[in-house]
Amino acid sequence: MAQENAAFSPGPEEQPRRRGRQRYVEKDGRCNVQQGNVRETYRYLTDLFTTLVDLQWRLSLLFFVLAYALTWLFFGAIWWLIAYGRGDLEHLEDTAWTPCVNNLNGFVAAFLFSIETETTIGYGHRVITDQCPEGIVLLLLQAILGSMVNAFMVGCMFVKISQPNKRAATLVFSSHAVVSLRDGRLCLMFRVGDLRSSHIVEASIRAKLIRSRQTLEGEFIPLHQTDLSVGFDTGDDRLFLVSPLVISHEIDAASPFWEASRRALERDDFEIVVILEGMVEATGMTCQARSSYLVDEVLWGHRFTSVLTLEDGFYEVDYASFHQTFEVPTPSCSARELAEAAARLDAHLYWSIPSRLDEKVEEEGLGEGAGEEAGADKEQNGCLPPPESESKV
């Protein structure tokens, strides 16, 4: 009956597929987290510059246009009110009347004069006179405030344009991570590369394991973050990223995958987030590129295809093979079981060498004379013949 059940049990392809895990970090580096129920929205206004820089481009352009248009309209209305209050609009044809602003005959003219004042165009047709102290004060205020608006908005647009986010788009990660042997030890590996000829200065790499866990006290910690060592102790995490590099995490006793076999890894639920940081050589600004690997994106028993070839006087990188892997013989056991098997093998070799030497000594002793057999037996037993004085006595 058991055999019949086993015969009709669904195969790997017929079994229902496991529900896909929700990514914490997308493959393109976007963090899949949204801030909800934020009641203290005033905090965004305390850092208005960063808020404007973080806005989408269409909103940033809208604020850019509104900042100038509203200030022009505001000061244009004040110029018109000054002219209206002084009676300049009622003495347009009076040549003996000295207005606050020459040739200001309505709101449109006041608006144009406001634009000319703030942008320092100065066409020369409308000009302020020295008989208007309130206009002189307003001119000073508009000049100062206009400079502040220019500095703020132009600064926002410059920072937004020069953000290194687009530079991170040319830093690529392999589509899969692999697990295979390196120098007799299981390693988790992924590949990074830079598509530009201008390099990332002081590049460094980090890796995080995102997996929910439960403490001994029963506390559930969702999306718990654990560091994966990629060479921090040895300095291998500092990269000279001129050509694509394979980043390796050795699965040792300190690794969270120490006891994970191939089957256990396939049944597990986790996400590996990799972070590449460095300074853009052209601008000196810090750049960060991110990617992630889910369980089904970790290939056990694979290795990356080489992409570097030596041409006539230079090295060439073939990015067509950047994501390609090939299968290699890899044990399916965990790194702990592999280390224990290697330790047992080393112990067997260590103790087998003296035993073979003893067998050789025994074979040589059997070929000697009968009178020497007793002495040979004593030597094999670790005993020495007695001195001559003791034998004579």
From TrEMBL:
The record marks 150 as: Role in the control of polyamine-mediated channel gating and in the blocking by intracellular magnesium. The chain crosses the membrane at residues 61-82, 136-159. Residues 384-393 have a biased composition (Pro residues). It catalyses: K(+)(in) = K(+)(out). It is found in: Membrane. One of its GO terms (cellular component) is I(KACh) inward rectifier potassium channel complex. GO terms for molecular function: G-protein activated inward rectifier potassium channel activity. This is G protein-activated inward rectifier potassium channel 3. It comes from Phocoena sinus. The lineage of its organism: Eukaryota, Metazoa, Chordata, Craniata, Vertebrata. The gene is KCNJ9.
